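Appendix B. Raw example, untouched.
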Amino acid sequence: MPRQPRFSKDDIVAAGLRIVRTSGFEAVSARALGKELGTSSSPMFTMFKDMNEVMEAIRMAAEKAFVARMKGVTDYFPAFKEFGLRLVAFAKEDPNVFQMLFLGKDARPEIAENIARECLGSVGQGYGLTSEKAGILFRQMWPVACGIAALCVRHPENFPNEEVSRTLSYHFYGIMSIIKSGEEVEDVKPLEMSKI
């Protein structure tokens, strides 16, 4: 009778996420997983085809954790503000996982983008915006929230929560007032100081 494996797929994925959290996605290897689990690297390959499959399972677990973190975000008004605050908090508290999901070479930002679109859709309805205007709001707010979160990966201390909240509010209400006014925003082009 074959011996039962000591570790499950979930154990291996959880160990991989711990490595990502402490050392980054690039630090995950069969050897590092074995060390984290207190065994050799061979148990990985009795349950996974190869390291690519292990890495994908770790990424999927991280995505699931992120989506769980965003659960209920549309219950707030404005939902996008709550989304932005949670996105920044995630970047501050779990910078290596944030980097793996949204800034790495295999990043898949559409996970967060889909949640953000849902939030802005509910905001658009709450403020009486057409889907076109809600789309404008999304295209202006999304880079702001992502930009702040990305900056927090390296220097979270530069962005206290109150400042993040205020910045998101300024941008949201500034963009909203422009959208509501119906005015076009002039595309300001930089000029050399000598020509002014």
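End of appendix B.
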